[in-house]
Amino acid sequence: MSDSELSSLIKLRLINPVKRDERAIDSFALREFERRVMMGTAKPRGVPYDGLGLMAFYRNLIPEAERIFPEFHIIITDRLIMSWDEDESKYHARVVLFGIPSIISMSGLVEAPARAREYYIARQVADSIGIKNPLAARSFSGDFLEFDDGRSPFVLRGYLLQCIFYAMTGNPFCSDRDCMLFNAHWQEEMLHAQIESGRLCAHHRRELNERLSRLRPGS
Length: 219
Description:
Distance between the termini: 40 Å
Structural class: alpha/beta
Order of helices and strands: HHEHEEEEEHHHHHH
Shape: globular
Low-confidence stretches: none
Mean pLDDT: 91
Oligomer: single chain
């Protein structure tokens, strides 16, 4: 990757979630870090990036002929993707952004869906009396995804399906909380849809089969 491309990528790194234009400043150290990320020798775990900017960056790397369905690309990254909320004037972490290409954030699986309200209360109490957060988190172990969580690949499947449905239909979501296309805002909802249920609803199973049959040669 060229220095100019690395520089463009660095400028997508966010410094302050409530200041839209406050970005990282290009430096040799950050270029080397991004280069190592591209080579797979470093992980940008939890490092926040402007999601739509990152999508545009990746789009420029995709040949134009591959930007039209049935061709589509899905980027899976450790970068934490964020999008700007005009109403709240701040960035929010996202698990997935749909577009060309769609992006799934493994850091977002951990940080974007909210944890149980009781977890945040326990953390506030622990912080107020000087106890570090891991102690509070331990009592909620298993209630949410963590980094290097063995359940992550199973949760990832559902978000890959959402990207596929977006590419095929323009609609990646389902209102059925038991369907893997359910748009979860809480860790509990995400784990239920992707692991406890771990299936598509009957409507989306049928739609997937019908659309795949049309894509087969000779159909």
